[in-house]
Design goal:
about 280 residues; alpha/beta; seven-stranded mixed sheet; three-stranded antiparallel sheet; 10 strands; about 30% helix
């Protein structure tokens, strides 16, 4: 457990950590209640970095304004997967996109609705889980996710199939996740986070539990190969894979991200894919 999330852990009664299987329903419930409980603290800590209408892909600071991983979005219907407070969707809307954003957490969407009002950029917001998308087949021209949903769903292959289903042929699906190599290290931005402590091939979820053993937070690990196979099975073509380097002069810590670790091994993987 992390002192950075002490408020959420106290609210949910988190008492320990388990490594055990977690099915789709338990993952949905755990991460809905977790992000509801942590939403205020999360935005108090990271809101300035993320902005209200900015598209930051990762803690390394890659911005869509510079990277243009989605290409020209003007006039296109774009889905943000696991949007949090939806700053990415609002930035897309500012570029002429018809953006739609969804998240499993009502707490996160509360912040998103507030930011809609503050910015005057009224992005449609939907509460949903990424493995059960409430959208019609072929209804979007692009989809994106900056650290949203994918690691928190029990079967990310289902997420890939659902995103592929709602995309039109040729549409991009670009998503950023914690680099799978980070799974082998402790979740520590300091020297303690430089020593391997677990197997890269151990896909047992990380689970925080309350005194009854109920999951209060769940995160799932997949290898690079797992992601590639899931994408192929969903009819998605892998176009590129970015592993952003830690930028010079960037001294901000974010959870396990830090200059110390960033100069030694990647913290983020950004998959650029396209529906066949």
């Amino acid at each position: 457990m992390s002192t950075q999330h002490a408020s959420a852990e106290l609210t949910l009664g988190t008492t320990g950590i388990a490594k055990r299987p977690v099915d789709a329903a338990e993952s949905r419930t755990a991460n809905r209640i977790w992000w509801d409980a942590d939403a205020d603290d999360y935005h108090a800590e990271h809101g300035d970095f993320l902005g209200a209408a900015d598209f930051v892909w990762c803690p390394e600071g890659v911005r869509e304004q510079d990277a243009r991983l989605l290409g020209d979005v003007a006039g296109k219907r774009v889905l943000e997967v696991g949007c949090g407070s939806a700053p990415c969707a609002r930035w897309l809307a500012s570029q002429g996109a018809r953006a739609v954003a969804f998240d499993i957490s009502a707490g996160m969407l509360r912040h998103a609705a507030a930011a809609n009002r503050e910015t005057g950029i009224d992005v449609p917001l939907v509460q949903a889980s990424a493995d059960q998308l409430p959208f019609a087949d072929g209804s979007f021209d692009a989809a994106c996710s900056a650290f949203g949903a994918v690691p928190f769903v029990a079967d990310s292959g289902t997420v890939m199939r659902e995103v592929s289903r709602v995309l039109r042929p040729g549409a991009p699906w670009v998503f950023a996740v914690t680099h799978p190599i980070r799974w082998i290290f402790p979740d520590d931005p300091g020297p303690g986070g430089l020593t391997v402590t677990q197997s890269y091939f151990d896909r047992t979820p990380y689970v925080e539990v309350d005194e009854r053993g109920r999951a209060t937070y769940v995160e799932h690990h997949r290898t690079m190969g797992d992601y590639v196979r899931q994408l192929a099975a969903a009819g998605l073509e892998l176009v590129d894979l970015l592993e952003p380097e830690w930028p010079a002069g960037h001294d901000r810590e974010w959870g396990q991200w830090s200059p110390l670790r960033g100069k030694l091994f990647p913290g983020t993987a950004i998959f650029l894919t396209r529906k066949r």
